[in-house]
Specification:
mainly alpha; two-stranded antiparallel sheet; two-stranded antiparallel ribbon
């Protein structure tokens, strides 16, 4: 029995590393494809086109991997609607609370002159392009790569879901760690590691919430919608309060 537990633990550690490397690989391929496509006429400030291509490429590749693994290993990555009633409940509750938090945060930043600074003009093309990316592509891609893939494969490696506290499981926590790492800047040669503490904590918390919803609703659809909506609200509020600041200054 002890040997079985040890083997499972080692297998899970190996799976964690494999998933991490796979996520890095998918991201690098996405960046490469985006770099060879000319989109300057569509997006001269590189505000949305490049990152959209990157996310679409990594999502498509991840879906191919998931399809192959699902058939070979006979495992379910929960790409279907799942428990619709529970999923809708989670989505409505999350969106309501997050909207209030987003407004409060931007009011605070507005008062303290800490609103975001943009590297592109807030014209119609850039605003619609970036908001379109956040609402349709960002969470859709990242939930496939950073939720469905790691959570499911870690459960497979452990042999079962591992409860930690309440509805939070070990595989969800590990997937959230990987999601947080994706929001850092690092390299091995030369060695470099840069991170924004707020972004890391923010990513981990939201990743954990979305991971719980993924497992409880048995569907990636609701975490996708939560992710897209939260990104849309944060970016959209930034634009709204920046415009308000310009008007009142």
């Amino acid at each position: 029995m002890e040997n079985l537990k040890l083997n499972r633990t080692l297998f899970a550690i190996g799976m964690f590393v494999v998933v991490f490397v796979t996520q890095v690989f998918l991201g690098r391929i996405g960046h490469y494809i985006a770099s060879v496509i000319s989109y300057g006429k569509i997006d001269p400030y590189d505000a949305f086109a490049g990152i959209s291509i990157h996310h679409i490429v990594q999502m498509v590749l991840a879906l191919i991997i998931i399809t192959v693994l699902g058939k070979l290993l006979k495992i379910d990555f929960y790409l279907k609607p799942g428990d619709v009633a529970r999923g809708k409940k989670y989505l409505i509750t999350f969106t309501s609370i997050f909207a209030l938090i987003a407004v409060a945060l931007h009011v605070f930043m507005y008062i303290n002159n800490q609103l975001p600074v943009y590297t592109f003009p807030l014209d119609k093309r850039n605003v619609l392009g970036t908001l379109g990316f956040q609402l349709l592509i960002s969470g859709t891609s990242e939930e496939i790569v950073f939720r469905a893939l790691p959570v499911t494969m870690l459960v497979y490696a452990f042999g079962k879901s591992i409860p930690v506290k309440g509805h939070v499981t070990l595989e969800v926590i590990l997937a959230s760690i990987l999601f947080s790492l994706a929001h850092t800047k690092w390299s091995l040669m030369p060695f470099k590691f840069e991170m924004d503490t707020f972004q890391i904590v923010y990513s981990f918390i939201l990743g954990t919430i979305q991971g719980v919803v993924y497992q409880k609703s048995k569907s990636i659809v609701y975490p996708m919608l939560m992710h897209n909506i939260s990104n849309f609200l944060m970016v959209g509020m930034g634009y709204l309060f920046t415009a308000l600041k310009a008007i009142t200054s």
